[in-house]
Amino acid sequence: MRLLVVEDDPALRQQLESGLSAAGYAVDAAADGSEGLYLGSEFAFDAAVIDLGLPKIDGLELIERLRKECKTYPIIILTARGHWQDKVQGLEAGADDYLAKPFEMPELLARLNALIRRAAGYASPVLVVGPLQLDTSRQQVTISDKAIDLTAFEYRVLEHLMLNADRIVSKNELTEHLYAQDFDRDSNVIEVFVGRLRRKLEPLKLIQTVRGRGYQLNPGAHCDALDA
Amino acid sequence: MRWMPNSIQRRLLVTASVVLLVFLGVTGWVLDQTFSRSVIKGAQQQLQLIVYALMGSASEKDRKLQFSDNLAEPRLAQPDSGLYAFVSDGQGEVLWRSRSAFLTEVASDGGASSVSSGFVFSELQQQSQPPRFSLSHAVTWEGLANERVIFTAVADQASYRRAIEDFRQSLGIGLGSVALVFILVQALALRWGLTPLLRMQREVAELERGKRERLSDGYPIELKNLAVNLQRFVTHEQSQRRRYSQALDNLAHSLKTPLSVISNALTESQPSAPLLQEQVQRMQDVVANQLNRATLAAPLALGSRIPAQATLERLVAALRIAYPQTEIATRLQAAGYLRGDSSDLLEIFGNVLENACKFSRSWVGVSAETITLQRVMVRVIIEDDGPGIAVDQRAAVLKRGQRADSQTPGQGIGLSVAAELVALYQGELVIDDRESGGARICITLPGAIADDHESMG
Q: Measuring CA to CA, which residue among B104, B103, B94, B101 is closest to residue B151?
């Protein structure tokens, strides 16, 4: 999951970056509105966290312009004043949720989780593909109620595949969504992670390679596995 | 209009002075003209009398005219007296001249030789001669060799002009003193009339410097409304200031305790993280509560008229984005109009609605209607299907925020902020149970009557 963070306060930006990275997100941070607009319109994000009071381009305008450029990823606004006028204006500009400062990281993570899931069309916090269950609120994966131990990065790969279970996800897309902008990209790394993930999910043959195009979850896989 | 004087007193004075000067100018001109005309008329009549006297003293002898020198006017006999008389025949030859004209060169003709009959009055302006009036009268005298005879009387204008000058002078002095007195009175009247304004200016300055708490009474009717509104504004500003300083006081007070706990904890070798967290949470609550309360706009007088339906629908639309799983049902057609500040109203309904969304299972209902008790009110009812608020907690939920360190689990500070604002608007917020379970918050706020054309349309 790749996140855009636009926050002008350096300390808070730093905290957001490290907190969100620790939660397994790839984070691109911008210090002002115009940098935010550049990043936000150039790269594929899964969600954005935008402060309302920004230099250069105001938060509200940034959201409006991103929406005008058909960027549909969920946006959560941070407001310092916490007035309803701000919240309503933010939501009207195209944001999906708001959080008043001071906020706590778990609260932000929960909101982001819900927003990303909602954007993918899941109402429940628990994603289910066959016997595989992924609880986005607790970041826990179980197969037939047996907990599977995943690293944060493996979890993100699986989550992305499950959120997009209806289509093929290319390696390129996975790289885009899992790494921040300044990360050294090597598609081999993705292959390694997918390989590890496959081993951990055995005996389920859930992740299929579509040659030359990428990966797709195979909901029917469990039948073979259980039947075998 | 940069040239306009930027003072009411000066503006009125300038206007009045201009009007006065025009009025006096026109009056002076008319009087002067009338007087001059009557003086000249007088001169004409005088000359006419002399002509008649001349004609009366003439007698015919041997087909020639003869004159007795005993004319009634002694000035005619006195050389260079300024009054002259001639008699000439039709060819312009002078038959007789008065003694006064012996030494003085006087144009005797006066252009009258061409006159057939009757009086001709004219002003003579000839070089090397003073300006004169002249009156000629041509007659046909039967029995004379040359029957056409012209009698002419000529007078220097100087004495008449002097009379006119004298008149002008006294007219100028008279009108000038009238103008002076008028402007003086006008200035005094203006000062008197503007005294209340100056008083207000002084009192506002005193208010500003804190030397005075309120404007005095007894302003004239033209200023009464202004004074009342100003007073309302000042009172509002004062109460706002009091609220600010109170909030800052409370804030400082409430922050110092957790701060000292933290600084004490930090002197220990191993500060306890939960303790620090608890204190930070306490400080956050303090900031959220007291700072929020201090920045509430608070109603100034009656505020403006705000459509309740549009306000609530705007909020509901926003909350539907933030809480997509919650079904928000509205019944707002009869909502009417609220009175107040739109951001205050957003704050009230936003907090209550958000609370309902947070604690609901899946449904929130909003309805509003205008009701008329002693005055027009709008009643907004916000319900949810959540756990509701226990009876013994209701008072605490609304009071939360007054004591920052009291914690009421389950409810955010939103309700207490809303309740406080509602109280400022002299409205009412009541927490109740919904019949089929859940909370039911009933907010009653001052409403406004729709404009006539809107209620008819």
A: B94
Strands B58-61 and B64-67: antiparallel
Number of domains observed in the structure of chain A: 2
Q: Which of A85, A102, A119 is the last residue of a domain?
A: A119
Question: Which tens digit of pLDDT belongs to each residue from B66-125?
Answer: 877 667 778 888 888 888 888 888 777 788 888 888 877 776 554 555 556 678 888 887
Q: Is the Cβ of A35 closer than 8 Å to some Cβ of chain B?
A: no
pLDDT, tens digit, 9 for 90 and up, residues A71-103: 889 999 988 777 888 899 999 999 999 988 778
Distance from CA of A86 to the nearest CA of B (A): 9
State how far residue B423 is from chain A, nearest Cα, in angstroms: 18
Residues A165 and A72 in one domain: no
Are A212 and A222 in contact by the 8 Å Cβ rule? The answer is no
Contacts of B288 in chain A (CB under 8 A): 82, 100
More confident residue, B212 or B22: B22
pTM greater than 0.90? no
- Note whether A49 and A62 are within 8 A (CB): no
Task: Report how many Cβ contacts below 8 Å link chain A to chain B.
Answer: 44
Q: Which of residues 284-303 of B touch A (CB under 8 A)?
A: 284, 287-288, 292, 295
